[in-house]
Amino acid sequence: MKALVIEEFGGPEVIHLAELADLEPAPGEVRVRVSTVVVGRTKDIATRAGRPPFAEQVPRFPHVLGSEHAGVVDAVGPGADPALIGRRVAVSAVLSCGDCRACRDRREEACSSFGLIGIHRQGSYAHSCVVPQSNVSLLPDDVPFAQAAALAGNGPVARAQLDAGHVGRGSNVLVIGAAGSLGATAASLAGFRGAHVIGVDRLSVKPGCMDGLPLLAALDGDAEDLADSIREVTDGWGVDCVIDNLGIPAVWHKYRETLADMGRIVVSGAISHEPLPMSLLPFYLHSQSLIGVRTGNRTEITALWRDVADGFRIPEAFVDARPWETVGDAHRAVEAGVSRGQAVLEVGD
C-alpha cells in the first residue's frame, strides 16, 4: 500500500510518499480502507516536528501520521465482527487499556496507558489503517467522508467540553478561536443544543472567518472593548461557559471578568504555553470552575454519533478537504493558524 511517512522529525518537507507492506488486522481489529483523514495541530503537526503529545517514547521510523479518519472496512481479524466488512465507518484515535480505574469508570481519556492512533501506533495517512473494532462507528449514508473525519476528529471532545460546561438550551457560551477546527465544532454543537453562542476570533486579521456558524454574535478577540461587547450581548449577565482552547493571556484577561456566577471555563489543549496569572478568590466567591478536558471518551463518541443521526453537522465551510498530495501545504496552513475549520486530507487511489 501507499502511505505518507516520516523518517525523521522536521518541517512539512519530511513527509513523503512511500510503499509499505499491506496490513493485516490482529484479533479484535479491523482494517479500514481510508478515504479521508484529519490534519491535527496537537497530534500530527506536533509529532512530525518532534514534540509528540502524551508520549514519553518517540515513534519508530518510518512512521505514518494520521489520527481520526473515515473509510470502509475491508477486512477483520479473528474475533471481530465480519458484518462490518463493506460498512462505512468513522474511526476514533483514542487507545485505552480497558482495565485501569479510569477505564472502569468509563473515563478512557484518563487511562493510565492512554495512546493515540498516529502517535503510539501507525496512523491513517495511508491507503489502509488497522484499528481496534471498538474504535469504529458506523456512518449514516448521507454523511460524506470528509464531514465524517472532521466530526470524528473534533465532535467527541467538543461534546465533552459542552457537557463539562453544563451547556444546554438558553446557555450563554463564549467560544475562543471559533473559526478553528475544534472551536467551530464546539460552536456548531452548542448552537445545535439551543445555546446562545458568542464566537471570538481575530476578525481584524481574518474578516468573516466565523461566517456560517450559528452565532448570536461574532466578536474580535483583538478588540480592547471585548469585555464590554460580551456584557452587551448577554444583557449584562455574562457567559455561563467559556470554551478556551488557546489560552492567550491578553484574551483571558478580557473575558475573565465576564464569567457569570456559577460559570465554567473549559480548556482542551491550550495552544499558547504562556502562564495565565489568576486569582483564585473569584472562583469561590462566584461559584465558578476551571475544567480541563483531555479528549472525548467512548461515552461521548457514542453520544456524538447520536447527535449526527439527529441532524448535527459541521458547516461545510469549516471542512477544508484537500488532496493528500498537498499534505505539506495543509500542515503549513494549520501550523500558521490560517486554515479555517478542520483540514482534511482525501486519500488518493
UniProtKB/TrEMBL annotation:
Residue span, Enoyl reductase (ER) domain: 10-345
SUPFAM superfamilies: GroES-like, NAD(P)-binding Rossmann-fold domains
Protein's organism: Streptomyces violascens
Cofactor: Zn(2+)
Keyword Cell cycle set for record: no
EC number(s) recorded for this UniProt protein: 1.1.1.1
Organism domain of life: Bacteria
Keyword NAD annotated: no
Catalytic activity: a primary alcohol + NAD(+) = an aldehyde + NADH + H(+); a secondary alcohol + NAD(+) = a ketone + NADH + H(+)
Similarity section: Belongs to the zinc-containing alcohol dehydrogenase family.
Protein name, per record: alcohol dehydrogenase
This protein's UniProt keywords: Metal-binding, Oxidoreductase, Zinc
